[in-house]
Design a protein that fits this description.
By secondary structure, the chain is mainly alpha-helical. It has nine helices and two strands, in the order ααββααααααα. The chain folds into two domains: 2-170, no CATH class; 174-242. Helix content is 73%, strand content 2%. The chain has a two-stranded antiparallel ribbon. α3 (79-103) runs antiparallel to α4 (111-139). The protein is elongated, with a radius of gyration of 22 Å.
């Protein structure tokens, strides 16, 4: 019974994830020229969650705290700081789900490690946001909502870099030579053989290879997708060392 409930819940989550991912990818061809698919997904997911956070922040600041200091025991919080905390409570779980299941789906790091890293980065960004907000609102006497918009713009770039290269970064080179990994890879390649993997499946789980497939640089077989992924990473390193 418990297993059936788990499978049912997992199926619902997969359907919801597919709906969100396919909806975002529907508009990707319009932006293909300027950014890779993963960056586009991050822009949409991060942007939507950011707008939601700004909306919650504005509503909490205006109507929940009425632009007045909040007294919690012996602690006194300014209304913009309290509103920022409320927006955090909503943005954190939604942001993690979008980053894990829509944006960085190629990360093989265990979920609890991803969650810990995401929490660490999110809290760091929250602290950065708070410091910027204090400087802009308390120091420069800027409007609280306008100040939050500026602080958010700074945090967005920092957040993407940290999420991409820390929270969901998968250092596969550390365990790739392990015999268990080699056997698993051999078994997978042997099972799939030269069978072409459906493009929608490649697009969903290996979206970073979509442009290469569309250009005909490799076929959608397991071996060529594996080589294409390795070449993509090597091209990034080559570009960084030759520019």
């Amino acid at each position: 019974m418990a297993l059936n409930k788990y499978l049912c819940r997992a199926k619902k989550e997969t359907v919801l994830t597919n709906v969100v991912t396919n909806t975002i990818d529907f508009f990707y061809p319009l932006f293909r020229r300027w950014m890779p698919r993963q960056t586009f997904r991050y822009a949409v997911c991060g942007g939507s969650n950011t707008l939601l956070g700004l909306l919650i922040y504005a509503l909490a600041y205006k109507f929940l705290f009425h632009e007045k200091n909040v007294h919690i025991g012996f602690i006194v919080a300014t209304p913009h700081s309290a509103a920022l905390f409320v927006s955090f409570l909503v943005n954190f779980p939604i942001g993690f789900m979008l980053m894990k299941f829509v944006v960085f789906i190629d990360s093989n790091i265990r979920g609890r490690i991803q969650l810990f890293r995401y929490f660490f980065v999110f809290v760091s960004n929250l602290l950065l946001n708070w410091v910027l907000l204090k400087m802009l609102v308390d120091g420069l006497k800027m409007n609280a909502i306008f100040g939050q918009v500026i602080a958010t713009a700074v945090v967005i770039l920092t957040s993407y870099l940290l999420q991409r290269h820390f929270s969901f970064s998968d250092r596969i080179r550390y365990y790739w030579p392990a015999p268990e990994a080699q056997r698993a890879t051999g078994a997978l390649l042997g099972a799939l053989g030269e069978r072409e993997i459906p493009r929608p499946l490649v697009s969903q789980y290996l979206g970073h290879l979509e442009d290469g497939l569309a250009a005909g640089r490799f076929k959608p077989t397991a071996h060529e997708l594996l080589i294409g992924s390795v070449k993509r990473v090597l091209d990034i390193y080559r570009g960084a060392t030759t520019s």
